[in-house]
Amino acid sequence: MVEIDPSLSIFAETLGKAPGRGRLQGRKILVVGGGQRDQPPDVEHSIGNGRAMSVLFAREGAQVVVLDRNQHSAEDTVKHIKSEGNVAYPYVFDVYAEAKETKKCLEEVKKMMGGLDGMVVVVGTSRRIPMAETSMEAWDEDFAINTRSHFMFCKHGIEVMDPGASIVLISSASAIRALDNNPVYEASKAALLALSRATARAGEDKAIRCNAICMGYVETPMGRSSGRKVKNRAATVAFGRQATGWETGYTALFLISHESAYTNGTTQIMDGGIWAGIATKPRDPRVLSAL
Ligand SMILES: NC(=O)c1ccc[n+]([C@@H]2O[C@H](COP(=O)([O-])OP(=O)(O)OC[C@H]3O[C@@H](n4cnc5c(N)ncnc54)[C@H](O)[C@@H]3O)[C@@H](O)[C@H]2O)c1
């Protein structure tokens, strides 16, 4: 077992403690899936990807609409943002059950902020079941949540969003590696990479960009719940720790900001170097809460 000190790779940004630097002044951004799943009271709480990016975007000067099917979770994210003196609004919407209302939803969101020039689609679900146990119904339902909803938000996003807007789709390292014996998750996340390119193509006339992010294991409520089912997760974490939701947030922050104005149709991998073959030795799977 190779030991590595995880604290060497932990900074204020890793923990969401860095101040805002005005990188999104005046921007109007929708985060689809900006809540996070509930956590048992007996564990130390971690921040989800959608909540972390909502908080960061607002801290950087944007107005943010936090969309989630879970009202109290969307409201908790908004409370967090307001506690820092920033601006956000909750919006309750189920991307699966209310898919046909997506355009109306986007129009209302645009009205709430007086514009819409950024959107991250974060929602995703994973049952972590192998192929033999995956039914046709499970395949269709998970594809609808993980891919169809992103298609609906991209298609109507191009119609409704302001020229020069940026869209970010949250995929997963499972899209590019057979990580977890989880075929419907892997296939639906891989489809998002092609969707981000197709969206970039479709949005070109309005200079609307689209990029995707593939994260490795992230220390979110979902990541923890998945990790419990993976025997050798320890062998695949880089730097001796999982990523934090804040680190996903900072990657999305770059892609949503005008700093990336010429970055389009790309896939950003954020896995600590696993895909590049850097973190190949077994590592101690320490999580941040244990540091
Ligand atoms: N945590 C990881 O290790 C990891 C790694 C790679 C990619 N991802 C991806 O990141 C995204 C977010 O993951 P997280 O770990 O922060 O998860 P999370 O479960 O904490 O957050 C997901 C949010 O989406 C909302 N949501 C789910 N279905 C919805 C629906 N039908 N309509 C509206 N809202 C809905 C949930 O209420 C929740 O607030 C997912 O797409 C996931 O696949 C996570």
Automatic annotation (TrEMBL):
<keyword id="KW-0560">Oxidoreductase</keyword>
<comment type="similarity">
    <text>Belongs to the short-chain dehydrogenases/reductases (SDR) family.</text>
</comment>
<dbReference type="InterPro" id="IPR036291">
    <property type="entry name" value="NAD(P)-bd_dom_sf"/>
</dbReference>
<dbReference type="Pfam" id="PF13561">
    <property type="entry name" value="adh_short_C2"/>
</dbReference>
<protein>
    <submittedName>
        <fullName>Short-chain dehydrogenase</fullName>
    </submittedName>
</protein>
<dbReference type="InterPro" id="IPR002347">
    <property type="entry name" value="SDR_fam"/>
</dbReference>
<dbReference type="GO" id="GO:0016491">
    <property type="term" value="F:oxidoreductase activity"/>
</dbReference>
